[in-house]
């Protein structure tokens, strides 16, 4: 990592590299300019035979910076193994059964702690089966209108606009002639009472399957205290629910297998990491860093690498 201002920069070398890089990658000047952070018109002049009439040394420094970034990213790619994508766990199997029930026109709820794979499972299910729409809620989509816009975009409509009545009509028309349509609302704890009631109405009128995925407060809102009366109609329609705050042992074993961890001591330590807040997500982050530490030493991953990785990530002492 070298500061361009602290060393001599060969303008022609940077120019030639830039031209070769653009040609080899088949990129337009506009695409290259976004990566380097220089206007495309300026960069294209720098990369031409006539050159740029302004400060070429400054531009050469920008190209040099980008070359260093590419080299740093390449080093990381060499050291870090490719993180596994979706892998099946006991919890994901159970969620798959719950989603299959929802696709029969039911309302289901999955209230899970962080890092248990609910989002990856939801995305995988939507990718594997027809007429399934995965939509992630946020604080900004808590209200009826913003929630409807997010749902329609998940259904393939671009920039939907209209009154809440018109948007609900469009959603109903979209799913009316579908066989077994399912809407998965991820991070559903953000939805307001009115938004949840609007969603319940789609289930009532069109038989649209609804899966409410979120943290444990989702079910607490439906079941708890003086709010239960407010959600009575929705609560009475929940056919199936999964509540889990921590990963199962089998889930953590599946994570170890996905990362090709076979050292018994390392697997045992991975179990302790995954039982902390963050679940399998914490375990995955620790494994990725541990693999990099092992690769830098030219060794297979062992308990020490995983302990060092977790100490760095958690900013705490090694787990006992």
**Count of DSSP H/I helices:** 15
The CATH architecture of the largest domain can be given as 3-Layer(aba) Sandwich
- Give the distance, in angstroms, between the N- and C-terminal Cα atoms: 37 Å
Overall 3D geometry? flat
What's the topology here?
Elements: H1 11-25, H2 29-36, H3 40-46, H4 56-79, H5 90-102, E1 107-112, H6 118-128, E2 132-136, H7 144-154, H8 164-176, E3 182-186, H9 193-206, E4 209-214, H10 217-223, H11 232-235, E5 238-244, H12 249-258, H13 264-274, H14 279-297, H15 303-314
Structure description:
With 320 residues, this protein is of the alpha/beta class. The chain folds into three domains: 76 residues, Orthogonal Bundle (434 Repressor (Amino-terminal Domain)), CATH 1.10.260.40; 155 residues, Rossmann fold, CATH 3.40.50.300; 66 residues. The protein contains 15 helices and five strands. Strands 2-3-4-1-5 form a five-stranded parallel sheet, sandwiched between helices. Strand 3, helix 9 and strand 4 form a beta-alpha-beta unit. The two termini are 37 Å apart.
